[in-house]
């Protein structure tokens, strides 16, 4: 799996997940439960992972819909 998105905003993560699932792309959020470690202040970013073969299509979908991606390569 490859990282598609890294964000501190849980609403962006949920929105991106819903968009990808709507397009038939499986995704998996990581670091969701790290808030227990940080005291629930939202400092640690959460990551959204996709399969290698879906990465380019997922990036295109996010870019087309205005979700900013950082270059993770």
Describe the SSE topology:
Layout: E1 2-7, H1 10-22, E2 27-30, H2 35-38, E3 46-50, H3 55-64
Antiparallel strand pairs: 1-3, 2-3
Describe the structure.
The protein is α+β, with helices and mostly antiparallel strands. The protein has a single domain (2-64), classed as Alpha-Beta Plaits. 37% of the residues lie in helices and 21% in strands. The protein has three helices and three strands; from the N terminus they run E-H-E-H-E-H. The protein starts with a strand and ends in a 9-residue tail after the last helix. The model has no long low-confidence stretch (mean pLDDT 88).
Keywords for this entry:
73 residues; alpha+beta; Alpha-Beta Plaits; 3 helices; 3 strands
Largest sheet: 3 strands, antiparallel
Q: Helix and strand string, N-terminal first?
A: EHEHEH
Query: Overall 3D geometry?
Result: elongated
CATH fold name, please? Alpha-Beta Plaits
Second rung of CATH, namely the architecture: 2-Layer Sandwich
Secondary structure class reads: alpha+beta
Average pLDDT over all residues: 88
Radius of gyration equals: 12 Å
Neighbour order of strands in the largest sheet: 1-3-2
In brief, what are we looking at here?
This protein has 73 residues and is an alpha+beta fold.
